[in-house]
Amino acid sequence: MNLPKSITCASSPSCYWLIPLPLLEAALLVAWSSGFVGARFSIDYAPPLLVVFWRCVLVTLLLFPFVARQLRQTSWVTLLKNAGIGLLAMAGYLAGITQGIALGVPAGLAALFADLLPMGLALLAAGVLGQRLTSRTWAGLLVGVAGVALGTHGALAWGSAPLWVYGLPLLGMLSLAAATLWQKRLPASQSMGLLPNLWLQCCVSGLAFALIEGTQGGLAPITNTGFVLSVLWTAGLSTMGGYGLYWLCLRRASATRVASVLYLSPPITMLWAWAMFDEPLSWQMALGMAVSAVGIWLVVREEARDARRKQPHGTAAESEPAG
Q: Of 177, 163, 185, which Cα lies nearest the Cα of 100?
């Protein structure tokens, strides 16, 4: 089978390495923030997990012809490990966020919990793996959180959900953080190509969402335009775009850097909401975005310093694709 050039490029480690990392991160922000907009749009047409289930089904069907051969050549050990990462990254994260909102957690508060991913990563890396971050990196992460809280302050509200429900978005965030660290520590011999990895994640997550949604209602698609558009939007932009670019960036940079870039996701989401739903913008949002940008700059600058410190004296650092 002759694969389209875009598919071949996505599967080639050397091809994406030619794209500047900041450009990949900018695309990640646009695609990742589209997920919150898609959830906002779809909630008027279908249960949130039903949309998530069908977006996984759609991506699984679309990608299968392009990854079938690679999957057959992959060992069961590698498949099982990457499937576990996929369950944590997609099923765990999306189920925690969407179920929290469905049970009464305000959407703005759930999004704020999700945006604590850089802090969750740092805490898990320090507490579980024993990794140590510098004080400047911690400062950058805290400044980023402050910017998110400032920019989203007007959209935050404490709902009437039971106290335990507020833990669901936090657990979802920690699930993605654990998957991210697992993916970064996976040996190169057990890493899969981008498209087979994305297919596997959607496949196992689709099964998980089928079990969850199947106990609450039917899995049949809803025959209205809003449902179809919701599935197409979230499958294309949020899953193949958002998750695809997230894993792509992780092959080029540290987990801390990639996650900290997502501090800019809330203001980008608000721009989406302004363009699509005519929601108002404010100077407070712009100020929060600026503060988050300062936090990201501190993290990126400190990582660059750390890389120079680890570089052998008098030699030039060599760049090569990870994974």
A: 163
CA angle 50/51/55 to nearest 5° reads: 120
Render pLDDT for 207-223 as a digit per residue (tens, 0 to 9): 999 998 878 778 888 88
Amino acid, res. 212: I
Find the helix packing angle between 107-114 and 265-277, rounded to 10°.
Answer: 150
Place of tokens 């809280």: 149
What's the CA gap between 45 and 27, in Å, rounded?
Answer: 28
Tokens representing 323 are: 């994974």
Question: Please, what are the averages of pLDDT over each run of 10 residues along the chain (323 residues)?
Answer: 47 63 90 80 82 94 94 92 93 86 73 81 76 80 82 64 85 92 85 90 94 83 89 91 91 85 81 74 76 83 73 46 38
**pLDDT per position as a tens digit, 144-194:** 888 877 776 665 566 677 888 888 988 999 999 999 999 888 888 888 888
For 20, list phi and psi in degrees, rounded to 5.
-55, 135
Residue type, 295: G
- Degrees, nearest 5: CA angle 272-274-278: 135
**DSSP labels, 206-274:** HHHHHHHHHTTS--PPP-SHHHHHHHHHIIIIIIIIIIHHHHHHHTTS-HHHHHHHGGGHHHHHHHHHH
CA 267, CA 272: separation in Å to the nearest integer? 9
For the whole model, what pTM was predicted?
A: 0.81
Residue reference for tokens 């922000």: 29
Residue 212 · residue 95 · CB < 8 Å: yes
Q: Cα-flanking dihedrals φ and ψ of residue 3, to 5°?
A: -80, 145
Q: Are 292 and 148 in contact (CB under 8 A)?
A: yes
317: left (phi over 0), alpha (psi -120 to 50) or beta: beta
Structure tokens at 140: 């950058």
